[in-house]
Amino acid sequence: MTAPRTLYEKIVDSHNVLTLSGEGRDATILLYIDRTVLNEYTSPQAFSGLREHGRKAWRPQAALGVVDHVNSTAPLRTNHVDDADAQKQIDYFATNGKDFNIEMFDVLDARQGIEHVVLPELGLVQPGMVIAAGDSHTTTYGAFGSIGFGIGTSDIEHLLATQTLPYRPLKNMRASVRGQTPAGVTAKDIIMHLIRTIGADGAAGHALELDGDAIQALDVEGRMTICNMAVECGARVALMAPDAKVYVYVSGRPRSPSPELLERAKASWAELYSDPDAHFDREVVIDAADIAPTVTWGTSPDQAASIDQATPYPHEMPQAKQADATRALSYMGLASGLPLADVKIDHAFIGSCTNGRISDLRDAARVLKGRQIADGVRAIVSPGSSSVRRQAEAEGLDRIFKDAGFEWRQSGCSMCLAMNDDVLSAGERCASSTNRNFEGRQGSGGRTHLMSPAMVAAAAVMGRLTDVRKLPALEI
Ligand SMILES: CC(C)[C@H](C(=O)O)[C@@H](O)C(=O)O
Ligand code: SF4
């Protein structure tokens, strides 16, 4: 009988080419990578490295590149941007695609979008895979029971040249979210609550498996939101055991394997769960009933609270957190003891690989239907991919957003990290469906409050952070 293994260990074992050094838990192995994801921002040096060393891409068909970080989201955008550096990245990316025989989607491609939205919607993420990308939010793919992790530029070069990576397996951690979430609580609230509970380094050095009835109850897109943001509590890999919902999601998409192959794959997918006695180095249990709509008040994703709470008094916090909290409140321009529901906003942003999928847009549109954003608020929505945008338009969601006063833009990372023209001005405060609220993340001096898309919509309507469950009823 083999020793019980975690889901993470099973997938690592099945991709272990050979042991490079050490043994047991200290071994460094050579890990086979099924898919490589590239973007224009983190891949250039890797390609330059390949050129310098005279190397080719060993398995170009395993890689896909998408322009997403620096591109414009203007409704009538072209392949050209004003920023010369960004233009260079976009052009070099296209050249690299041609020279190395790798498929690349430029901004005008009908399949363009944020890489972590595009891969799953094409059917390129299947259970049991190992996927690496030059981007930390590659953890998103854990929603399918596949290992996804971010790598640096020199690793991208190694990966393209060999389709493998030297790899030190991670420790195992499990977070179980038990019971039922209260009405109005979304996947985003679950992950923000977990991050707030265990801290921004709570899962550092671990592969984080999430299970429990509250996770099983989520649709696949909600699960992606959670795995995406798991990196904000330090997890290098997030994982959820795949189930029938995942099987349905991964079939019938433009790049899904054939129905026959999928049928055969299901036999091995059925093994993708942690054995009952598998060892976890760390375990936490969250009671789903405790979770409320959550917003950040600070400059780290764990500086968060329920919307019905107030900003903290740093001296009442654990010693180790006081200095950061004081600095964060000052950067955010917030006094202590201020009810979060009194915090006024200037901006609202819906999009990103955390919450830019069709279900996220539907959630926000449900709140906005028949309502108007508050005077003085600027609100934009950037669908996670061009195909999400088309789907939303087919459902009439664009009209709801526009009628409410939102700008309906093209897809890309956009204001999630403000590498294009979608930037906050210093001092501006934004309700944002994104995943990072670091200082300057959405523009130098800009202030970010993270929350779910429905909560962003509610904040846009009220002009201040708002419990979406308490929005005044529509006058009909
Ligand atoms: C630009 C890229 C390196 C970065 C990441 O790795 O996550 C970005 O996507 C982000 O969200 O901060
Ligand atoms: S949308 Fe944001 S988090 Fe996602 S890849 Fe782009 S910048 Fe990173």
UniProtKB/TrEMBL annotation:
Keyword Mitochondrion among UniProt keywords: no
Cofactor: [4Fe-4S] cluster
InterPro entries reported for this sequence: 3-IsopropMal_deHydase_lsu, Acnase/IPM_dHydase_lsu_aba_1/3, Acoase/IPM_deHydtase_lsu_aba, Aconitase_4Fe-4S_BS, Aconitase_4Fe-4S_dom, IPM_dehydratase_rel_enz, IPMI_cat
Pathway involvement of the protein, from the record: Amino-acid biosynthesis; L-leucine biosynthesis; L-leucine from 3-methyl-2-oxobutanoate: step 2/4
Class of the enzyme per the UniProt entry, highest EC level: lyase
Keyword Kinase listed: no
GO MF annotations, alphabetized: 3-isopropylmalate dehydratase activity; 4 iron, 4 sulfur cluster binding; metal ion binding
Function: Catalyzes the isomerization between 2-isopropylmalate and 3-isopropylmalate, via the formation of 2-isopropylmaleate.
HAMAP family referenced in this protein's UniProt entry, alphabetically: LeuC_type1
Family: Belongs to the aconitase/IPM isomerase family. LeuC type 1 subfamily.
Stated name of the protein: 3-isopropylmalate dehydratase large subunit
Organism for this UniProt entry: Acetobacter nitrogenifigens DSM 23921 = NBRC 105050
Annotated gene: leuC_2
